[in-house]
């Protein structure tokens, strides 16, 4: 993996670890519980991706850097974020959108480098991007953010398709990556800012059996 | 895999994708959220089965047909099922029962073809049959259908045992498959129709700690 | 695996299967549902550990003993625990603490025997110890016990660190194992008895977005 991809990957890890640690704080967990929730949020998606592709042991087992980044993020979060009001309300969604964009492209890149098809690469990007957040939300008993009607899975899928298409049109890897990351990030950010959503598929008047 | 097994597998995939898409509609999700929920319902169980057995990359990664079937099902569902009343109340449970039966036998068949024991094959059939539905229900914050007192895991286990026993008694693969699928489907259908249930293990008067 | 480790492993399996079966009883499940919940509780953590490490097929697939232990435990639980009052209120937490200690050390031991680093071994011990219980609690729609503020993940991590450090200081495997198991068990038991908890990371006054 080129160094700058690795650097992005660690940034995404820190961002998702922060989002997991803040969610843990909202459920009043002890420090080791915070570590657990931050960790599953940060490496959950990539772990599912690697086990599905058979790329085991999964990426963080033989590289302690990921765990060190998570532990440092948790430590800094616990030390610095003692008062909720110090966290501006928009920080978490924006950080989450950045993590989503970074992880989507890194996941798709890893899938392509293992010889998977473009369609599978888009799916692996999606799993990497949304997997950790889904586990975080399930553990906190919230309906996963990805299932709510704001554009979330959509941003990841758009980024993944943008990345694989750019590559197949002959764009350089680095340019394709930046373009696709910006696309996914911009779509998600626009959805947060203007509360955009696609027309929803709504059967709610039908009572669940 | 013989072609007719493959055909059944795609039918089960469509049926479970439909059940996931309908569940998504009841939670008012956007189209890409519907795709995510339909996909995990359709290929979740088989993915868990393959990762536990070490049959990676999992089955749908190198065969785009499964994803295409899911996307087509989601598209048709969104286009055709605009009004809840058009879905007769019994369609989803019956489709779900058919998917359960198909996936159970296909999962057991794959386990046996990889050299696993009969007991492990029954378990792999169960995981294939109920795994996707459990993930769907967890993501929608429902107690999984498999955990409710109607006969559900029971039907899958009965089908799996029927299949492995029929084979060990020398029955031809095709006959054993049809027999076991019919058994699992009939048991689940009977449970739905007449609200059958096994005597439950009930400790509810004991307050959870 | 030495025989006495195997024996401990089966003890932990029975203990976690009991905890899953009792949880199933509190949700009034049918016998096969009880088997499903007891099984995921008992082998869920170890299965996640094995798939992440790439040690597939996972441990219980080629050794029917684990399934037999689970089925026997479920049978005994259903036959003997007909009246909730017969289960003293402290039995489940103490059994759970014992299972946590046993599975943590066994998971760390397996990771080290596969050549993983000490840090990864601690994490694999944690996953083995808490994974099954987390799946049990999610399926029952409870916030996982590991996320509540009583010392839980803490006990497992302490045990795992104790085990790997003892080994690196040259202690014999058997002694290190007993020492670390006792440590984890004692910490968790003390937390239950005196309602100990670490100072929590509390951001609850911040409303979830």
UniProtKB/TrEMBL annotation, chains A, B, C:
* Signal peptide from the UniProt entry: none
Q: Describe the location of the Glycine transporter domain by residue ranges.
A: 7-80, 94-163
Annotated membrane topology is: Multi-pass membrane protein
| Record key words, sorted | Cell membrane, Membrane, Transmembrane, Transmembrane helix
Q: Name one GO cellular component term.
A: plasma membrane
In which compartments does the protein localize? Answer: Cell membrane
Spell out where the chain crosses the membrane: 6-25, 32-52, 64-81, 93-112, 118-139, 151-172, 178-201
Report which superkingdom the organism of origin falls in.
Answer: Bacteria
Q: What family does the Swiss-Prot or TrEMBL record give for this protein?
A: Belongs to the UPF0126 family.
Q: What is this protein called?
A: Membrane protein
